[in-house]
């Protein structure tokens, strides 16, 4: 009886509001969001392109997996891509809160906290990804559920500066809200998936008709847009969980950057 009452009394996450506000912040701040995504996407393209080739990175060619050296280079490429994704995510967390509060967007102010958070976010993202992958071996739903469990690692690390404690903190915050979080992530993920599909498709067309430079531009721009939307949504989910569970407001969260 008490369990049912607790469930009924639980404050709703507000999936519709989170998704709607994610798009609102994304479109109202499209230029700074794109710029922050471009920082990570461009750096990733330059470094990983030097390792395995730009055509492989933008998705118009396959990596060489026929030799141990080729496999090693591709593994390094994936790690670097995760590291730069972590940088973009850390930048976007800060932008999302300033945008939500109506504060000026100050990209320069976000860089130092984002750089400090790169290593733990990257490592924890790899660990969480492996755990989700193992869970997906049997069925896809458990893998997605694990992803929901660890979905707010990035804002937890950036805001609370807890380093490698981010996995445990995310698991604690998402407890009792993982299914609605998963619903929000799926809705946002569909849109991000479309953007990420358009990138390689457009890059392939431009590669044939206009050359690798324009193909690379198409790749980094679409990657930046996908990173922007997903990063903002994760930041808003984290803020909502802190509000529900701890009574912490967005302005209190954002105050850590002052």
Q: How would you describe this protein?
A:
The protein is mainly alpha-helical and 258 residues long. The protein has one domain (15-112, 175-257). It contains twelve helices and no strands. It has helices spanning 2-9, 15-28, 30-52, 54-57, 68-101, 107-136, 140-149, 153-160, 166-174, 178-209, 212-246, 250-254. Helix 8 packs across helix 9. The longest helix has 35 residues, at 212-246. The radius of gyration is 19 Å and the shape is globular. The N and C termini lie far apart (46 Å). The model is unreliable at 1-8 (pLDDT under 50).
Short description:
With 258 residues, this protein is mainly alpha-helical. It is built from twelve helices and no strands. Residues 1-8 have low confidence and may be disordered.
Strand residue content: under 5%
Major β-sheet profile:
none
Let me know the average pLDDT. 85
The secondary-structure element order is HHHHHHHHHHHH
Question: What is the fold's blueprint, element by element?
Answer:
Elements: H1 2-9, H2 15-28, H3 30-52, H4 54-57, H5 68-101, H6 107-136, H7 140-149, H8 153-160, H9 166-174, H10 178-209, H11 212-246, H12 250-254
């Amino acid at each position: 009886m008490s369990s049912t009452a607790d469930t009924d009394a639980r404050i709703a996450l507000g999936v519709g509001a989170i998704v709607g506000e994610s798009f609102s912040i994304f479109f109202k701040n499209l230029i700074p969001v794109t710029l922050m995504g471009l920082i990570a996407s461009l750096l990733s393209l330059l470094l990983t392109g030097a390792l395995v080739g730009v055509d492989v990175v933008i998705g118009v060619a396959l990596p060489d997996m026929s030799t141990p050296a080729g496999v090693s280079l591709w593994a390094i490429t994936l790690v670097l891509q995760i590291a730069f994704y972590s940088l973009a995510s850390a930048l976007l967390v800060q932008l999302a809160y300033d945008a939500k509060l109506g504060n000026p967007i100050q990209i320069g102010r976000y860089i130092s906290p984002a750089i400090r958070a790169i290593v733990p976010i990257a490592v924890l993202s790899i660990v969480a990804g492996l755990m989700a992958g193992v869970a997906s071996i049997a069925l896809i739903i458990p893998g997605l559920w694990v992803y929901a469990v660890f979905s707010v690692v990035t804002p937890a690390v950036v805001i609370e500066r807890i380093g490698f404690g981010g996995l445990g903190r995310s698991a604690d915050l998402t407890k009792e809200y993982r299914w609605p979080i998963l619903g929000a992530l799926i809705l946002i993920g569909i849109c991000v998936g479309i953007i990420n599909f358009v990138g390689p498709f457009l890059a392939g067309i431009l590669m044939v008709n206009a050359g690798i430079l324009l193909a690379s531009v198409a790749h980094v721009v679409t990657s930046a847009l996908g990173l922007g939307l997903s990063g903002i949504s994760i930041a808003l989910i984290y803020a909502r969980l802190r509000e529900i569970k701890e009574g912490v407001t967005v302005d209190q969260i954002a105050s850590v950057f002052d």
